[in-house]
Every structure is written in C-alpha cells, then in structure tokens.
Predict the 3D structure of the following.
Amino acid sequence: MAYHTYEFLKKRRNEPKWRKAYISARNKRIISTLILINLLLWGTVLFIYIQSNNTDISTYIENIKQTIMNTLK
C-alpha cells in the first residue's frame, strides 16, 4: 500500500477501506507525541537539577558513567 498523509487518512477515517491505516497512523502519531513530551520533561528535570546543584556538566556525566559501570559489575 502506498504511503498517505495523516490528513488524507483522517478525512477517510470512517471508510472501511482506510480505517485500519488511519488507526495505525493515529497510534504512531500518539506514541511519537508521548515520547517527545517524555524527552522534553526529563530534559527539563535534568537541566533544573544541574542548575540547582551548581553541578558541572562534565562532572555530572562522569558520575553517571561511574554509577552505570558500578551497576554493571
């Protein structure tokens, strides 16, 4: 099946021929939005944490690396 835009599928969402493709495109769009919101949220939390603790980024990254290495051992 050829690729169609979300708008194309949305206009035909109630037509049986296009219903399955519309639901699939809608689900992908919802998941992409949720992932983006999640990344922005955690990025903001990390930024605020670094700013409030006056932590140098390179020191913070080294601490994360050390924690991961200790966990994997």
Q: What stands out?
A: DSSP finds three helices and no strands in the chain.
